[in-house]
Design brief:
By secondary structure, the protein is an alpha/beta fold. Helices cover 39% and strands 17% of the residues. The chain is built from 20 helices and 27 strands. Strands 3-2-1-7-19 form a five-stranded parallel beta sheet, covered by helices on one side. A hairpin with a 7-residue loop joins strand 21 and strand 22. Helix 16 packs across helix 17, helix 17 runs antiparallel to helix 18 and helix 19 packs antiparallel against helix 20. The termini are far apart. The structure holds flavin-adenine dinucleotide (FAD). Keywords: Heme, Iron, Iron-sulfur, Membrane, Metal-binding, Oxidoreductase, Transmembrane, Transmembrane helix. InterPro entries: BFD-like_2Fe2S-bd_dom, BFD-like_2Fe2S-bd_dom_sf, FAD/NAD-bd_sf, FAD/NAD-binding_dom, NasD-like.
């Protein structure tokens, strides 16, 4: 199983006893995103130190933040890869499947579960978190899953594809993303939460908008009653709630929070609270040991996001390397904002800033388009915002909250009327923003840093990501990075969207032609005979076009098997959608050749109309599918679902009608 999950192997060598070399050794325990960031910074800030990274998972380092997009089939395994960028023969050694079990603080040595020893001069603990499992009966049943690691995600992918009723417990960001990613056409997903979704951060009305959007995706929401037990004979079969009510289920996914991994720190006597207690340089109670990321507790706070971890890594590594390199102005860690941005395709949703200092609130809502925007102000200063549905001012708004910008009364009136805070003409592209403009919120990468990297020859989004880290976390700044590079905006949701849109529109035009054009005339004399008529009236050519049409129908039917039969899961579904739409368009062209714009009579007329209706609905589904990720309007998005259902219903009648048509041609 481990082999199946392995990301490409790491080329890094091992460092056995580096203190012999006379260079300092900096060890990092934990190869999650924050541990990897530390290793990168240590190599960068120290010109000579050896860096050793230990991870206990079987895979090479990966980006945990992107797991929900991987589960939702929006990213491939390779997209998760999160290596330390260094020369193969560098001062770096990385180890997977190596769990550190003991820290001998007196001799400054790490000991792993296999007895291996690693001396260190400075140690960074980046052990992250573990899923918090509720203390109720049944959590150890075989089909109860956590959602934290790549291995968990692989298990959930198998579960998602097996068409069952899946109950996701917990409606925080993780639960919402998991439920949306697990929903397929064939399964049923229920999101169960004892409290409000996103812990009430959206407010009642915002929660209702998000709930509607989730319902439109097909996820059922059930809030209120706490879960009391998971019941079943070896496997989870039923959820029992505190009020005695029950719900049957085939599998349970626990998204019930996390708990900092502090066992290693505790066992060697470091001061711990809920996390490992640190000062503003992320130093623990032992001056040679630092703690960063989700395992660290700073000023009585534990952050459950990656951006604070990156900021802590910056302060910690600058402090460790302060003597080896002249770092200009190393800054201590002072705490981080905790904005939330959900990564659910089709449902942009974010909570920006806080509500602590908020004195007034302004709301814009558009029920039809599923838009909800709430602005929090302290005096005239914007201190926070919540939005559900697309908001093209969101980036600028984030910057305004971070800078503590003020707004005038006219802007607020416009906001309540139109949902816009700034005049449209005042809104400018990324190129017109100042260098300080923050493009990647997760990694704190400004437009200025990106421009510097571009001027140093980084010309693709991937090169820019490697140079600056922009886009390496949630990827939502991808379109801005692309705009800076004059590259096409990445299609974050569906591949071939444009191709499918064009093919679908061409198909709709062909259908209109087939219906509106007068039937092709029969030549009245041999002189007026023209080539096309051979196609329409010559028996041989009629058979060629007829069987080609039949082959197109069979091919599209076979393609749809891919969705239903797991063994046929080759390639990404979007490639097959594109092939399906091209074959559908080709079938229409062949239909025109076969019929010569004649609709036929009796059952042939029924066949023709059924075929045209099926292709019309198919083409409409194509249009809605291709445009879906531009739309936030829930009702518009519902169209795709309904047209798909009509499309399938029409297709069911086709085999019998085609069978009759062929029989009629040959035998009557
Ligand atoms: C599905 C999902 C989606 C998320 N989405 C977002 C998001 O959109 N935005 C956001 O900001 N955050 C998000 N998060 C949270 C984010 O992933 C974490 O904040 C981040 O991973 C914390 O990084 P870390 O390095 O501190 O810890 P972790 O990522 O937990 O990494 C710690 C690593 O250390 C290893 N380890 C622990 N103990 C030992 C030991 N003794 N020896 C060796 N190795 C050890 C662990 O196995 C683990 O691999 C998401 C999390 C999940 C699960």
């Amino acid at each position: 199983m481990a082999d199946e999950l392995e990301l490409p192997a790491s080329p890094h060598r091992s460092i056995n006893n580096p203190t012999d070399s006379g260079y300092p050794v900096y060890a990092v325990v934990g190869n999650g995103p924050v541990g990897i960031r530390c290793a990168q910074k240590l190599l960068e800030y120290s010109g000579r130190a050896q860096v050793v990274v230990f991870g206990d998972e079987a895979t090479n380092p990966y980006n945990r933040v992107k797991l929900s997009q991987y589960l939702a089939d929006q990213l491939s395994l390779a997209d998760l890869d999160n290596p330390v960028h260094s020369d193969p023969d560098s001062r770096l050694a990385t180890f997977n499947s190596r769990r550190i079990s003991t820290i001998d603080r007196e001799n400054r040595v790490l000991i792993d579960t296999g007895g291996g020893r690693q001396p260190y001069d400075k140690l960074i603990l980046a052990t992250g978190s573990e899923p918090a499992v509720p203390d109720i009966p049944g959590v150890d049943l075989s089909n109860v899953y956590p959602f934290r690691s790549l291995r968990d995600t692989e298990a959930l992918i198998r579960l998602r594809d097996s068409d069952r009723h899946i109950c996701v417990i917990g409606a925080g960001a993780l639960g919402l993303e998991a439920a949306a990613a697990l929903k397929t056409r064939g399964n049923r997903v229920t999101l169960q939460s004892r409290g409000q979704i996103l812990g009430g951060l959206l407010g009642d009305e915002g929660a209702e908008y998000l709930q509607n959007a989730m319902t439109a995706l097909g996820v059922e929401l059930r809030t209120g009653e706490p879960l009391a037990a998971i019941e079943g004979d070896g496997r989870a079969e039923r959820l029992r709630f505190a009020d005695g009510g029950t719900m049957t289920t085939d599998a349970v996914v626990l998204c019930t929070g996390i708990r900092p991994a502090v066992t290693l720190a505790e066992s060697c006597g470091l001061e711990t609270g809920r996390g490992i207690v640190t000062d503003e340089w992320m130093r623990t109670s032992d001056p040679h040991i630092y703690a960063v990321g989700e395992c660290a507790e700073f000023a009585r706070r534990i952050y459950q996001f990656v951006r604070p971890g990156y900021e802590q890594a910056e302060a910690c590594c600058a402090h460790i390397c302060r003597e080896t390199r002249d770092l200009s102005d190393p800054r201590p860690y002072r705490g981080s904002p905790t904005d939330i941005q959900l990564k659910i395709a089709h449902i942009p949703c974010a909570v920006i800033g806080g509500e602590e200092n908020s004195q007034q609130q302004y709301v814009y809502r558009n029920r039809f388009r599923g838009l909800y925007r709430l602005l929090r102000l302290s005096g005239q200063r914007i201190v926070g915002a919540v939005y559900i549905g697309n908001w093209d001012e969101a980036n600028r708004l984030r910057q305004a909250v971070a800078d503590g910008d003020t707004v005038i009364g006219r802007a607020l009136q416009r906001f309540e009327r139109e949902g816009r805070l700034w005049e449209k003409r005042a809104e400018r592209g990324i190129k017109a923003q100042p260098d300080s403009y923050l493009v990647c919120q997760c990694n704190n990468v400004s437009k200025g840093e990106l421009c510097r990297a571009i001027s140093q020859g980084k010309r693709t989004p991937m090169e820019l990501q490697q140079a600056t880290n922009a886009g390496s976390v949630c990827g939502s700044c991808g379109p801005l990075v692309a705009e800076l590079l004059d590259a096409p905006a990445p299609n974050l949701v569906m591949r071939h969207a444009r191709g499918i849109l064009v093919t679908s529109i061409i198909s709709l035009l062909l259908i209109a032609l087939a219906l509106l054009m007068p039937p092709a005339p029969v030549s009245e004399s041999v002189q007026s005979h023209w080539y096309w008529q051979e196609l329409w009236y010559d028996n041989f050519w009629k058979q060629v076009s007829g069987y080609t049409l039949l082959a197109c129908c069979l091919l599209t039917a076979t393609l749809s098997l891919r969705k239903r039969w797991r063994r046929l899961h080759y390639g990404h579904v979007d490639h097959w959608r594109y092939v399906h739409s091209v074959i559908g368009g080709a079938a229409l062209a062949v239909l025109v050749v076969h019929t010569g714009f004649r609709l036929g009579e009796n059952l042939n007329l029924v066949l023709m109309l059924d075929f045209l209706a099926a292709t019309t609905t198919g083409a409409l589904v194509g249009v809605f599918m291709a445009r879906n990720h531009h739309w936030t309007d829930i009702k518009l998005r519902e169209h795709r679902k309904w047209w798909s259902r009509v499309h399938y219903a029409l297709l069911w009648a086709m085999p019998a009608l085609i069978g009759y048509h062929i029989l009629a041609v040959y035998y009557f």
